[in-house]
Write a structure and sequence with these properties.
Elements: H1 3-9, E1 14-15, E2 19-20, E3 23-27, E4 31-38, E5 44-52, H2 58-68, E6 79-87, E7 90-98, E8 102-103, H3 115-134, E9 137-138, E10 147-150, E11 153-156, E12 162-163, H4 201-204, H5 222-235
Antiparallel strand pairs: 1-2, 3-4, 4-5, 5-7, 6-7, 8-10, 9-12, 10-11
Length: 236
């Protein structure tokens, strides 16, 4: 996907006859995100991610997003709609989500979080991950841009959530090249890290999350990959 073309030529287009592309918010080689609005009175602001459609995986990814739309937790960004479309003859898949005013990547370069701020940030994220894991889902892409603020509530992005036994991404929709290493098929033994890597017990034991004693890094489950990524985000 040519992001420059999308930014210049796609604003003003309407996706699926329902979702106007009002303002380009950002993008990568494979996806672009726009501000849009939901039909209704008054219209409600939302974000729409457009991803280059992989002919072999497009339907599967849309089905995944539709499944994620059934998950409800106050600290997960809601998935509102998903489908397939074309813009200027370009085949795309799309997902419409709650509109977030900002994300953690906009704050962290400016200043470090205080210990209290880090704790207040971690608590809702731990709650969201615990909910996902109880439902046999994992997030797979925890990093500052995917930790978002909607009003005064912190939320994890939802477009990369998948079932524990599924590939981390279908055709890598929207994955930047730096994330490709995280797109391996996740099984209980796939998450191996160096012996120096932090473990989820570093912070989760303080917040009531159970430890898993006796497990080496090589024995971590797919869900423990999430805890590692979350801990790494706040250990940088």
């Amino acid at each position: 996907m040519n992001t420059a073309v999308a930014r210049l030529n796609w604003e003003g287009q309407v996706v699926d006859g329902k979702f106007p592309l009002q303002k380009w918010l950002g993008g990568s080689e494979r996806c672009d995100v726009f501000r849009t609005e939901l039909p209704g009175q008054p219209p409600q602001a939302a974000a729409i991610k457009l991803v280059s459609a992989d002919a072999g995986n497009a339907e599967r990814q849309v089905n995944r997003w539709q499944t994620v739309a059934t998950l409800t937790h106050p600290n997960l960004l809601r998935v509102l709609h998903a489908g397939q479309c074309q813009i200027n003859s370009t085949p795309l898949i799309y997902v419409v989500m709650e509109y977030a005013e900002e994300d953690l990547s906009q704050v962290m370069p400016l200043r470090a979080l205080s210990p209290e701020e880090a704790r207040e940030t971690l608590m809702p994220l731990v709650a969201a991950l615990s909910y996902l894991h109880e439902k046999s889902f994992v997030h797979s892409r925890i990093k500052p841009p995917n930790i978002m603020a909607v009003g005064d509530q912190l939320k994890l992005s939802s477009d990369s959530i998948h079932a524990v036994n599924e590939s981390a991404c279908v055709g890598c929709p929207g994955c930047a090249s730096a994330d490709k290493a995280a797109c391996a098929f996740l099984t209980p033994r796939d998450c191996a890290y160096s012996s120096s890597c932090p473990t989820r017990s570093d912070f989760c034991s303080e917040m009531g999350h159970p430890r898993e004693p006796g497990k080496s890094c090589a024995d971590r489950t797919a869900t423990n990959c999430d805890w590692h990524r979350l801990n790494s985000t706040f250990s940088a």
